[in-house]
Design a protein that fits this description.
This protein has 335 residues and is α/β, with parallel strands linked by helices. The protein has 2 domains: 10-177 and 221-247, 3-Layer(aba) Sandwich (Rossmann fold), CATH 3.40.50; 179-219 and 250-287 and 303-330, Alpha-Beta Complex (UDP-galactose 4-epimerase, domain 1). It has helices at residues 18-31, 47-51, 63-72, 86-91, 93-113, 148-167, 193-204, 222-234, 255-265, 278-283, 292-298, 306-322, and strands at 10-13, 36-40, 55-57, 77-80, 118-120, 123-124, 171-172, 174-176, 178-180, 206-209, 216-221, 246-247, 251-254, 270-273. The chain has a 6-stranded parallel sheet with strand order 3-2-1-4-5-7, sandwiched between helices. α2 (47-51) links the parallel β2 (36-40) and β3. α9 crosses α12. Bound molecules: 2-amino-3-ketobutyric acid (AKB).
């Protein structure tokens, strides 16, 4: 394995998405605005994303376009976040296959050809399926996903690990649970209810949840998600026994427990439950995760639990609501 360089010029694909919009800001604070190129596909970026550093429109399924951006900015590190999530993936399985696997293959090939320093590609709890133990799901266990998103993420992990072993490309990634965030809404996942519930509780004091009240899933608050991505990417390679498939979690709760926690802050809040097709997806995923490998190999430790995450979400969204800019579409976009 070649000596490992530093991350100096970073490209973030999917930078307009839920994780990308906040990770780009954090990376720019750490590595300098000009050194972090944000790339989005179709959605208009926020003004702050464009103003903080370079922005490019990029379709990751087009390798020439990706290569052109990598060469233009002399990129040495890619945080590859562009992906189709689980619920949209069930509605558009062919698109999920194309974006999630063809896009990743392009990123890995460009990384191999241009000898990039490092690649980050998030995986998901969606790699697991109904045959996987659902409580404290072990690091090494059955991967038999039943969604197209899960199929692409499981195959993607294996492809990344192959590039590590076969070509010496330093690819890293973790199996993220549902991510709860206050800045950008998630787009088309099964765990989206855990974000939507906050917006609706604040705007309308009511929410109709699309999974059952007793549905338990692993979750993580965005500040922990950002910290995990940066910590994993800055970890000493020689300590890593895993690469693109770390189990990772912060908390587990049912939809009913989340509603009850929100009610502590907004007593009038009422939550109803009308499960739809996403219930079957949620039922195929773990309830809780054993993330000891991540803790041991790169020091993973979350800061937020259900109570502290809920208090912070309500505080942030209430302030924005009082200023008339609760939803992302109420905020300024780029030219
Ligand atoms: C989804 O619900 O599809 C994602 C995920 C768990 O990867 N949030």
């Amino acid at each position: 394995m070649a000596e490992r360089g530093e991350m100096k010029r970073i490209l973030v694909t999917g930078a307009v998405g839920q994780i990308g919009s906040e990770l780009t800001v954090a990376l720019r604070q750490r590595y300098g605005g000009e050194n972090v190129v944000a790339a989005g596909h179709r959605t208009k970026p926020s003004a702050s994303l464009c103003e903080g550093g370079p922005f490019e429109y990029l379709d990751v399924t087009c390798r020439e376009a990706l290569l052109a951006v990598v060469d233009k900015y002399r990129i040495d590190t890619i945080f590859h976040l562009a992906a189709i999530l689980s619920a949209v993936g069930e509605e558009k399985p062919h698109l999920a296959w194309d974006v999630n696997l063809h896009g990743l293959y392009n990123v890995l090939e460009v990384a191999r050809e241009r000898q990039l320093t490092r690649v980050f590609c998030p995986s998901s709890i969606a790699v697991f399926g109904p045959k996987t133990p659902r409580d404290h799901t072990p690091q090494e266990t059955i991967l038999c996903p039943t969604t197209m998103y899960g199929v692409t993420k499981a195959a993607g992990e294996m492809l990344c690990n192959y590039y590590v072993q076969r070509f010496g490309v330093d690819v890293r990634g973790a199996r993220y649970p549902g991510i709860i965030s206050s800045e950008t809404l998630p787009g088309g996942g099964t765990t989206d209810y855990a974000v939507a519930i906050f917006y609706e509780a604040i705007a309308h004091k009511r929410y109709t949840c699309f999974v059952r009240e007793d549905t338990v899933l692993p979750m993580m608050y965005m500040p922990d998600c950002i910290k995990s991505a940066i910590d994993l990417m800055e970890a000493d390679f020689s300590r890593l026994r895993h690469h693109a498939d770390f189990n990772i979690t912060a908390m587990s709760f049912s939809a009913g427990e989340l509603a009850a926690e929100i009610k502590k802050h907004i007593p009038e809040f009422v939550c109803e439950y009308q499960p739809d097709f996403r219930q079957a997806i949620a039922d195929s995923w773990p309830r809780s995760i054993d993330d000891r490998a991540a803790r041991e190999e790169w020091g993973w430790e979350p800061a937020y639990d259900l109570a502290s995450m809920t208090a912070d979400m309500i505080d942030k969204l209430s302030k924005r609501h009082s200023e008339g800019r609760l939803y992302p579409e109420d905020r300024k976009t780029c030219g």
